[in-house]
Amino acid sequence: MANKKGKRYTAAEKAEVLNWVNNYNVTHGRGGVANASKHFEITQLTIHNWVRQGGAAMSSGSGTRVAPNHSNNLRQLADLLDQISERETELNKLRKEYDALRKKL
Questions:
Q1: Which of 18, 34, 68, 99 has a Cα at 20 to 30 A from 75?
Q2: What is the pTM of this model?
Q3: Strand stretches in the chain, DSSP E
């Protein structure tokens, strides 16, 4: 059986979805996760996990509370993750080259 990974979302994509959920919940009171799931074609479970990590309006017994907007931090994290990925790709290439030269010894 093949090891199949699901789609990976960038921090910017997560921020966009969480902002959608937050705006919908502020306007309608609830239902943002279900609405975002349909709009972005992402499972509700995935979005709920992102919300639990603290990124959107959530209903509580005393009404709706709005979690802080982390979109700027998420953008910075996305940029850093892109840089890390580039460096890891470069490092893997150098390791392969190193191993090939080492085998020639």
A1: 34
A2: 0.49
A3: 58-60, 63-65
